[in-house]
Design brief:
The relative contact order is 0.15. This protein has helices at about 5-20, 40-45, 95-105, 140-155, 190-200, 230-240, 260-265, 275-295, 325-335, 355-375, and strands at about 75-80, 130-135, 175-180, 205, 245-250, 270-275, 300-305, 340-345, 385, 385-390. With about 400 residues, the chain is of the alpha/beta class. It has a single domain (about 60-380), classed as Arginase, Chain A (3-Layer(aba) Sandwich), CATH 3.40.800.10. The structure holds manganese (II) ion.
Length: about 400
């Protein structure tokens, strides 16, 4: 068959087909009949909210003002702490709880299972709810810090919803656990004060670009002005709230000199730098962290600035050259089974965000915290055919 004939035949077939596929307007039928004398409920029944609809709560969890509703119980609470008047650079983390909840809108119980954890924290048997925000004063830092401590203590003392469902090996088995949404990093001081009343001294696993163990800042000329997002660990150590078995991960900030590292050790921290991930790899980082805190009660605090600003730009004191979101997630996965008494994610300041990158990353990390809290050990590597990924 010549090329010309082939071309003509194709053109003919195409033109005939296109004529037949045209649906005349007169034949169009509405897929769903419109006006009927029925109510929404009769016709459509109860429908869950779309990811983009409904009131804003973390992962569409029930939203309850737990501080005022004293009969409400839970095993794990999401609690917003919209405080941001302790920052040294860019303010705006008071909108962090909003941004993290907004970033979580595509998360929900119906699709809460992840391959990486092989679990769904929302149907694990533990009751997880969003307890709303602590209504902190934006005018008086001493007042706000006290409000956060009282709020945290109030929720920590509540009887868990399913105490028998929790891992009884955990020191926290008799108390619920709280995942706090900052807020700037100062919020951890009242959190540690509240935890100390229940657990005594605890270890801290601290993901951050910065040490946060400085004793003071320029401008800290009153006692209250020493309470900042970069001094709270120093103050916590001075108050006897934390043990000397804590560890940083992801540090890369500029320092005043070696003296800062010596002071940091005195506050009780070992240090894993950002670059260590290239030299020791993720499994060794996980091992170092686990060995450092052992089976002591441990608190996880994650400053979103541990992640590279390209992947999480919306934060108060960004530092270039950080870890990827995936790397941080992978390290967190290796920490399951430690004796966690609580966790937070802080320093999300959405005014500096683009396309919700930071809010979505933070919400995903909170999902990981919840998956970690309901796991008794790190998940096994997934099978890929007959071998595991690690064996490939
Ligand atoms: Mn930081």
């Amino acid at each position: 068959m010549s090329r010309l004939v082939t071309f003509s035949l194709l053109a003919l077939i195409t033109s005939v087909t296109s004529v037949h596929e045209q649906v005349p307007f007169a034949d169009f039928k509405r897929p769903v009949q419109g006006f009927e004398d029925v109510t929404w409920l009769e016709k459509y029944g109860s429908q869950i909210d779309q990811p983009f609809s409904g009131p804003l709560s973390f992962s569409h969890l029930p939203y309850t003002r737990c501080l005022e509703n004293e009969d409400v119980d839970f095993d794990i609470a999401i609690l917003g702490m919209p405080f941001d008047t302790g920052v040294t650079y860019r303010p705006g983390a008071r909108f962090g709880p909003y941004a993290i909840r907004s970033g979580s809108r595509r998360q929900r119980e119906a699709r809460g299972y992840t391959m990486s954890w092989s679990n769904n924290p929302y149907n694990s048997g533990l009751k997880i709810i969003d307890c709303g925000d602590v209504p902190v004063s934006p005018f008086d830092n001493a007042l706000a810090v006290d409000q956060m401590e009282v709020a945290y203590s109030t929720l920590l003392k509540r009887t868990p919803a399913n105490p028998t469902q929790a891992n009884q090996a955990l020191v926290s088995a008799g108390h619920p656990r709280i995942v706090s949404l900052g807020g700037d990093h100062t919020i951890v001081l009242p959190v540690l004060r509240a935890l100390n009343k229940i657990y005594g001294q605890i270890s801290v696993i601290h993901f951050d670009a910065h040490l946060d163990t400085w004793g003071t800042y320029p401008g800290s000329i009153t006692e209250q002005s020493r309470v900042t997002h970069g001094t709270f660990f120093y103050l916590a150590q001075q108050e006897g709230l934390i043990s000397n078995t804590s560890i940083h991960a992801g540090i890369r900030c500029k320092l005043g000199g070696e003296v800062d590292l010596e002071d940091d050790q005195a506050v009780g921290f070992q240090l894993i730098s950002t670059d260590d991930i290239d030299d020791m790899g993720i499994p060794t980082i996980i091992q170092r962290i686990r060995e450092r805190v052992g089976d002591s009660p441990v608190y996880l605090s994650l400053d979103i600035d541990v992640i590279d600003p390209g992947l999480a730009p919306a934060t108060g004191t960004p530092e270039a050259g950080g870890w990827t979101t995936r790397e941080v997630k992978r390290i967190i996965r290796g920490l399951a089974g430690l004796n966690f008494v609580g966790a937070d994610i802080v320093e999300v300041a959405p005014a500096y965000d683009n396309a919700e990158i930071t809010g979505i990353a933070a919400a995903d990390l909170v999902h990981d915290f919840l998956s970690m809290f309901v796991s008794e050990k790190p998940p096994a590597p997934r099978q890929v055919g007959p071998v595991t990924r690690d064996e490939l």
